[in-house]
From TrEMBL:
Residue ranges of every copy of the Thioredoxin domain listed in the record: 55-219
Coiled coil feature spans: none
UniProt record similarity statement: Belongs to the SCO1/2 family.
Originating organism: Algoriphagus halophilus
SUPFAM superfamilies, per the entry: Thioredoxin-like
Regions crossing the membrane: 6-26
Protein name as it appears in the record: Protein SCO1/2
GO molecular function terms listed in the Swiss-Prot or TrEMBL record: metal ion binding
Entry binding sites for Cu cation: 93, 97, 182
Length: 222
């Protein structure tokens, strides 16, 4: 009986030592980190003809200023020092935009009380999507200006920003909703204006990953 108790005691000691040994191993041989890539560190090599070609330096979102749903100017200046999640859409979109906006609403709810995270939804049909139209759309998604801005601006500037700034394929539908072509991607941009990732706005799993990586950037990953 005494031998059994000794054996049981030794087993218990071993079990208790396992987490200690694991901790010592991790401490001695390095730490686990979750690295979020910095995209386009050697230029974008953009396929679009209107974009600057041959640049091999870190790509940053270029300067721009559009108008939000409240008629206020919003753009690159408001991105400085904040994490910004950006998508391109239009309010009359008959296909992927409703799903994208629903998923973006989840992102908005997650970071609604976080002052260093914001959302820009940029219209690729600015001739139809006036600030008044965007305000109605924003209200449908319970979006507060300054936290989730719906933006409209000059058409040529918008398409150049999508293709050359965010490296997002975008084709003008000339007013016909079914003819517009744009990406379903949500773009994660850090406080320095660098693109850190793309995520499908029609995939719940991808949007979950976006929210996770936004939190990681928010809490110290540079």
């Amino acid at each position: 009986m005494r031998g059994i108790r000794i054996l049981q005691g030794m087993v218990l000691v071993c079990i208790l030592l396992i987490p200690v040994l694991i901790f010592m191993f991790l401490k001695g041989f390095g730490t686990n980190t979750y690295e979020i890539p910095i995209l386009y560190q050697k230029g974008t090599d953009s396929p679009f003809s209107e974009c600057v070609q041959g640049d091999t330096t870190q790509h940053y979102i270029p300067d721009f200023t559009f108008t939000n749903q409240e008629g206020q100017p919003v753009g690159k200046a408001q991105m400085e020092g904040k994490i910004t999640i950006v998508d391109f859409f239009f309010t009359s979109c008959p296909s992927i935009c409703p799903v994208m906006s629903q998923e973006m609403e989840r992102v908005y709810d997650m970071f609604q009380d976080e002052p260093n995270v914001q959302i820009f939804s940029i219209s690729i049909d600015p001739e139809f999507d006036t600030p008044e139209i965007l305000k109605e759309y924003a209200e449908d998604h319970h979006a507060q200006a300054g936290k989730w801005d719906f933006l409209t601006g000059d058409k040529l500037e918008t398409y150049k920003l999508a293709r050359c700034g965010f490296i997002i394929p975008t084709i003008d539908g000339n007013g016909i909703p079914d003819n517009f072509i744009h990406s379903d991607k949500f773009t994660l941009v850090d406080g320095q204006g660098r693109i850190r990732g793309y995520y499908s706005g029609t995939s719940r799993e991808d949007v979950d990953l976006l929210m996770l990586e936004t939190k990681i950037l928010l809490h110290g990953n540079k």
